[in-house]
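[Discussion] Sanity-checking designs against the backbone

I'm trying to build intuition for which residues belong where. Below is a structure token string of 149 positions. I'd appreciate it if someone posts a full sequence so I can compare it with mine line by line.
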């Protein structure tokens, strides 16, 4: 079953200088090819300009504002039309709510950063088995409401 996978922006896919984390495009392409959908959200607001700037628009199914507290209620408040099945963020709390990966923060441009490959591995394992023992993986503490899409 395809997952709706939500990526944070700052320090998850973008460094302080707004450069794109190595492997981001490749990882998005692989996830989509595996049957998943990739979404972008940010606590700062809508980041369409950055997604366009890095030429990721063709891979991203939606760009949303991310709740920074009361995450589940925030989906409705910020018009996020999908339940996030899997969240990748450098900030643990939202990951612990929906389940996903707390990633190593990407602050500074680094050609040798291989976190995206590791994230892809965890997502693949989760998609297959429903869990992962790898560092950074968090199971959801807030189950998907049965009535929500
Ligand atoms: Mg962040």
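Best answer:
Here's mine. Compare freely.
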């Amino acid at each position: 079953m395809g997952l709706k996978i939500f990526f944070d922006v700052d320090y998850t896919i973008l460094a302080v200088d707004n450069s794109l984390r190595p492997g981001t495009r490749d990882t998005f392409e692989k996830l989509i090819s595996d049957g998943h959908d990739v979404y972008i959200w940010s606590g700062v607001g809508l980041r369409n300009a950055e997604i366009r700037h890095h030429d990721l628009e063709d891979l991203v199914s939606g760009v949303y504002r991310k709740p920074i507290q009361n995450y589940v209620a925030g989906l409705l408040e910020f018009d996020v039309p999908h339940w996030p099945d899997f969240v990748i963020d450098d900030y643990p709390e939202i990951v612990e709510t929906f389940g996903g990966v707390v990633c190593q923060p990407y602050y500074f441009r680094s050609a040798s950063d291989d976190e995206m490959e590791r994230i892809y591995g965890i997502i693949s394992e989760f998609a297959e088995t429903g869990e992962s023992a790898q560092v950074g993986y968090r199971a959801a503490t807030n189950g998907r409401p049965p009535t929500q899409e």
